[in-house]
Amino acid sequence: PGCAAGEAVALVLVAVLWGSTGPFLRTGAEGLEEVRCQGRLQQLLAEIRFLGLNYKYMVPFLLNQGGSLLFYLTLASADLSLAVPLCNSLALIVTLVTGRILGEDIGGKRAVAGMLLTVLGVMLCVAGS
Fold it and tell me: Where does the signal sequence lie (predicted)?
């Protein structure tokens, strides 16, 4: 029971890290399309430099990768058929809320309802297994 509770907390933390960083990554990557260089390799290196030196991108990126590492470590003991839908569903909700707070267009009430119904369906499938 204690281990399962710890796994649940870890998976919720993963979902929060994944879900909350997505909108910040989009915000941090603003301006990337203005980076221009001759040749594919130079363009790629310029884009990597732009993102790598941009703390508004790198901080959420590192937090997101920390969530991935925690997910990987948690999967050693968690039930995969429960962990993946739980994390993805919760991350979707957190992304929606975070994006809305940051003023992103989340697609209106119908899009939100569709996402929430998808999450509910996943949760029902998980609960039934």
Answer: 1-19
